[in-house]
Write a structure and sequence with these properties.
The structure is a single chain. This protein is α+β, with helices and mostly antiparallel strands and 398 residues long. 43% of the residues lie in helices and 18% in strands. The protein is built from nine helices and 15 strands. The strands form four sheets. The protein has a five-stranded antiparallel sheet, with no helix packed on it. A five-stranded antiparallel sheet has the order 14-13-12-11-15, with no helix packed on it. Strand 8 and strand 9 form a beta hairpin. Helix 4 crosses helix 5 and helix 7 packs antiparallel against helix 9. The longest helix has 50 residues.
């Protein structure tokens, strides 16, 4: 066995001494060699291999320096992405984790002489959010991966859709309130006016009706020839009292009925609002419904505007669709899908809103307002009729 072969005691001792980090000033980046002391580094610098590497560096120093800088930055950001993707952390902590690998690219071989300069460079390039505090520099990784940007785009799209949906609901509520107020006025004021006509509408002389008034219980005689008699034996005072009583009773009944009805409708409206707030989600896919594929990139393969059955839901937003024509299985995001409305009398599933996950039967559609009338079957709300539910909230059952 030779003097310095792999399993000799000398070689083993050298490997033990070389473990861990050594002095940075005794490291040669061009040769990627770590020396243990000043004498060893001096001997290395005089070696033929080091001289050849330095000649290569002298021929194109800027290119080699930029290469080491790019490698250092890429490795540093990769560590940030893997270990501290969503956290705010001290720059020194990340750097200490980075230099744990003894084969890392050393900073003295890059264009940045200090860690502070490198951190400022990351902030100017927009790759990290940099903060200077009394405790030192803190950095936060800015995730610019294509997958993350896609998810952020989807999230912003869902937020916009939610805002549009809220505005739509507010408009519908205001419209219903105005309609209810108009109906309430039309059922109360005209009825009271029709029962008690104003005095100006009477034309007694043209009708030939004679009415006598009895004051203080006296007879119907008057010295000034104002003596009149009715055709009936009932006094006029009693007739008017009965009319007033009847009209007052009718008004009281209509007010009570409308008041009780409006209170019940108000309670039902409050219940609807609570259920709508609890069950309105930004995802609607569920197993067993028929959907239409609206993804234009799939048009080349013949799947555009084709129908399929949702067999499995993945992470709430992605569905495995079994096509009805050829039984092929696709994995499509819900934004690329559309609900299907069956014929009148067909079964549907309510996929979003107050009555989410309920089965219902389609009773009619309103193409002008893009809504449908359904009757819930089975479950807690069996028999309840929903007069105006949006197309997007119901879907045909397979």
């Amino acid at each position: 066995m030779g003097k310095n072969e792999f399993l000799t005691p000398k070689a083993i001792a050298n490997r033990i001494k070389a473990k861990g980090l050594q002095k940075l000033r005794w490291y040669c980046q061009m040769c990627q060699k770590q020396c243990r002391d000043e004498n060893g580094f001096k001997c290395h610098c005089m070696s033929e291999s080091h001289q050849r590497q330095m000649q290569l560096f002298g021929q194109n120093a800027d290119r080699i320096l930029d290469g080491f800088s790019e490698e250092f930055e890429a490795t540093f950001l990769d560590l940030m992405r893997r270990s501290h993707r969503f956290s705010r952390i001290a720059a020194t902590v990340v750097y200490n984790e980075y230099i744990n690998d003894r084969h890392h690219v050393h900073m003295n071989s890059t264009k940045w002489s200090t860690l502070t300069e490198f951190i400022k460079h990351l902030g100017r390039a927009g790759k990290c959010k940099v903060e200077e505090t009394p405790k030192g520099w803190f950095i936060t990784y800015i995730d610019r991966d294509s997958e993350t940007l896609f998810k952020e785009k989807l999230k912003n799209k869902r937020i916009k859709l939610d805002l549009v949906e809220e505005e739509k609901q507010e408009r519908e509520i205001r419209k219903q309130i105005e309609m209810a107020a108009a109906e309430h006025l039309s059922t109360t004021i005209p009825n009271s006016d029709s029962n008690i006509n104003p005095p100006t509408d009477f034309n007694l002389e043209a009708a030939g009706v004679k009415i006598g008034f009895s004051l203080g219980g006296s007879s119907l005689l008057n010295k000034d020839n104002i003596t009149t008699a009715t055709d009936t034996t009932t006094s006029s005072k009693l007739v008017f009292e009965e009319l007033d009583n009847d009209s007052n009773k009718k008004i009281d009944k209509t007010n009570k009925a409308s008041g009780g009805k409006s209170a019940l409708e108000e309670l039902m409206r409050e219940e609807e609002k609570v259920k709508e707030k609890m069950n309105r989600k930004d995802y609607w896919l569920c197993e067993g419904i028929v959907v239409k594929v609206m993804s234009k990139p799939l048009a080349d393969k013949g799947y555009y505007k084709q129908k399929g059955v949702v067999r499995k839901v993945i992470d709430k937003y992605v569905g495995e669709i079994e096509m009805l024509d050829n039984k092929h299985v696709l994995r499509v995001d819900q934004d690329e899908l559309e609900t299907v409305i069956p014929q009148i009398g067909g079964l549907v599933k309510i996929v979003n809103g107050a009555y989410r996950s309920s089965n219902a039967r389609l009773m009619g559609v309103n193409t002008d307002k893009f809504c449908a009338k359904v009757k819930i079957e089975k479950g807690v709300y069996d028999g309840r009729v929903l007069n105006a539910i949006d197309y997007e909230d119901i879907c045909k059952l397979a």
